[in-house]
Amino acid sequence: MMIPGVDGFMYPNEVELQWSVLIVLYPYITGLVAGAFILASLERVFKVEAVRPTYRLALLTALAFLLVAPLPLQLHLGHPERSIEMYLTPHRSSAMAMFGFVYLWYLTVVLLVEIWLEFRPDIVRMAQTAKGWTRLVYKVLTLGSMNVSPAARAIDEKVGYFVTVVGVPSAFLLHGYVGFIFGSVKANPWWSSPLMPVVFLFSAMVSGIAAVLVLYVAAMKVRKTPVDMRCVDTIAKYLFYMFMIDFSLEMLDLVHRIYESDESFRSLDFMVHTRLWFSQVILQICLGTLLPLALLAITQLWRVAEGKRRLMYVVASCLTLVGIFAMRWNVVIGGQLFSKSFLGYTSYKMGFATREGLLPAIALMLLPFLIFWVLVKLLPPWLKRETA
Predict the structure, then answer these.
(1) Is the distance from CB of 324 to CB of 287 less than 8 angstroms?
(2) Which residues have a Cβ under 8 Å from the Cβ of 138 and sit 6 or more positions away?
(3) Which residues of 194-230 are buried (b: 16+ CB within 10 A; e: fewer)?
């Protein structure tokens, strides 16, 4: 019997994809969180003073996307209310179940603590000067600590530095384990690679840095404030370096697969040249990798005017975000389009207003920006000297 959308032989339980676009969003959003926090740690831990104007902005970006990160998984579950069970009855042998503890640790112990310590003087000042209900909000955010003396701030700095140092490996763990989940599925040759966690980690740093760069330039445009080109140049330099490492790792994985050429290679090669041609070759490789790398390389090797250089940074960052999303799509969706026997292929049809369709996916991608806008209004990330 012929099944629409299926070529060759596939088992009945392989015809329908188990993971949809929501599972594509999950590693993409967590990657933005990890990358934004790594950029923030450059100033606090590695003393890269040039990126100081984006330190607070990167923290709020990480928080906005982290609050949305578990929502794709919740929508994917048939009974999302049961997710509380992973805290009450922990299953230590399940990588997916342990994500709840990694997420809770990163949100409460790392990110919220660092943001509170960084913004505490501003929170105390607003609790004393604000009017109406906003004053009550800021008073609650002080957590009863109104002491912002130099001695208290010195303690805040030491604790904040320690939290950031702990947060760097925590950010690696937050997203590295996502690649670990895919790489540990031995039955799927598209995913089963020891390089998968490392590739996911570096692509996360690339996407997070690119997102903060775009948000910073856009925020300065909205505020009608000059962009700190020294800051943007430094961010673009680190973006270029991280992108080169990420691209090298992906090429290493590709060369290894070509050299090994096991029984699955012909099937995977057919997938790339047919069903994934646009998403992988056009979007991920050409538009999302080679073109932004070329734009960033031009700015690093040749002297470009400030206005053109800023535009090239923004275009390269936007293309990078598209390319990283395409990479997540090709891993999650592409890894499910061929049969375990390598004799059949199926296609993915995404609904629109269904629970795991296009409309919920768009809403989940817009929600972090709405949360980010609220956070910026509540805790303005602009430095005092910049405001002056």
Answers:
(1) no
(2) 123, 124, 126, 127, 130
(3) eebbbbbbbbbbbbbbbbbbbbbbebbeeeeeebbee
Residue recorded with tokens 């370096």: 241
Q: What is the pTM of this model?
A: 0.91
Cα separation, 38 vs 43, in Å, equals 9
Give residues with Cβ within 8 angstroms of 372, minimum separation 6: 60, 61, 64, 215
CA angle 179, 183, 185 (to 5 degrees): 130
Gap between the Cα atoms of 43 and 47, Å rounded:
5
Question: Would you state the structure tokens that stand for residue 133, as one six-digit string?
Answer: 């209900």
**pLDDT the model gives residue 14:** 62
Q: Give the number of other Cβ atoms within 10 Å of residue 266's Cβ.
A: 11
Whether the CB-CB separation of 65 and 31 falls below 8 Å is answered with no
Report the pLDDT averaged over residues 292-313.
93
Question: pLDDT at position 186, please?
Answer: 67
Tell the CATH topology of 8-387: Formate dehydrogenase/DMSO reductase fold (1.20.1630)
